[in-house]
């Protein structure tokens, strides 16, 4: 079972790399059917689409629902490089996605066990299975390197601004 999860997570990581190339937060996702067919894949496009909801998970949900002509994505598995946020977990629950497989935890925004655990909330009518830490190091490294580079750029600009005064 882990080998199939690793295979699909590597594809999600390729999507994350596409986001990084666009200077978007490098998160990638894909949705598979029960038989393992890829229904959709995407990466974060919040900046390029000027859309705060354009998270990788939301984009794959939209594309797959459109493709199968149904808002319910029953018996599907969502692969995402980083733990879904509250917005994305809510969409996952509304879409009735059966399983969420993610790479790295997100202690600041995660809603699949780190900060919140919507999948375990018994008040909700659907609770997807959660599998975490698939390709954890690769998923964590791509996002940490992205933000490290961003911080370094900001620090460099601040240093240059101080020197010019």
Write the layout of secondary structure elements.
Elements (H helix, E strand, L loop, with lengths): L1 H20 L6 E5 L5 E6 L12 H13 L8 E6 L3 H10 L3 E6 L24 E3 L4 H28 L2
Parallel strand pairs: 3-4, 4-5
Antiparallel strand pairs: 1-2, 1-3
Helix pairs in contact: 1-4
Tell me what you see in this structure.
The protein has helices at residues 2-21, 56-68, 86-95, 136-163, and strands spanning 28-32, 38-43, 77-82, 99-104, 129-131. The relative contact order is 0.15. It is built from 4 helices and 5 strands, in the order αββαβαββα. α3 (86-95) links the parallel β3 (77-82) and β4 (99-104). The longest helix is centred in the last third of the chain and has 28 residues, at 136-163. α1 (2-21) packs parallel to α4 (136-163). It is globular. The protein has 165 residues and is an alpha/beta fold.
Quick structural overview:
The chain has 165 residues and is α/β, with parallel strands linked by helices. The chain is built from 4 helices and 5 strands; from the N terminus they run H-E-E-H-E-H-E-E-H.
Please give the radius of gyration in angstroms. 17 Å
What is the helix content?
Answer: 40-55%
List SSEs in N-to-C order. HEEHEHEEH
Beta-strand content estimate: 15-25%
Estimate the global geometry from the Cα principal axes. globular
Number of strands: 5
Quote the distance from N terminus to C terminus: 59 Å
Number of helices: 4
Side by side, the strands of the main sheet go 2-1-3-4-5
Structural class: alpha/beta
Determine the mean pLDDT: 94
| Low-pLDDT sequence parts | none
User: For the report, how would you describe the main beta sheet?
Assistant: 5 strands, mixed
């Amino acid at each position: 079972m882990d080998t199939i999860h690793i295979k699909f997570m590597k594809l999600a990581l390729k999507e994350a790399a596409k986001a990084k190339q666009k200077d978007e937060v490098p998160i990638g996702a894909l949705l598979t059917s029960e038989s393992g067919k890829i229904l959709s894949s995407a990466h974060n496009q919040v900046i390029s689409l000027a859309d705060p909801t354009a998270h990788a998970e939301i984009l794959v949900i939209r594309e797959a629902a459109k493709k199968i002509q149904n808002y319910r994505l029953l018996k599907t598995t969502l692969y995402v490089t980083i733990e879904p946020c509250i917005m994305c977990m809510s969409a996952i629950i509304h879409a009735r996605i059966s399983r969420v497989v993610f790479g790295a935890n997100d202690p600041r925004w995660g809603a699949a066990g780190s900060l919140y655990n919507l999948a375990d909330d018994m008040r909700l009518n659907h609770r997807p299975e959660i599998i975490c830490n698939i390709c954890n190091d690769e998923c964590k490294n791509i996002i940490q390197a992205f933000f490290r580079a961003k911080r370094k750029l900001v620090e460099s600009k601040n240093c240059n601004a101080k020197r010019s005064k």
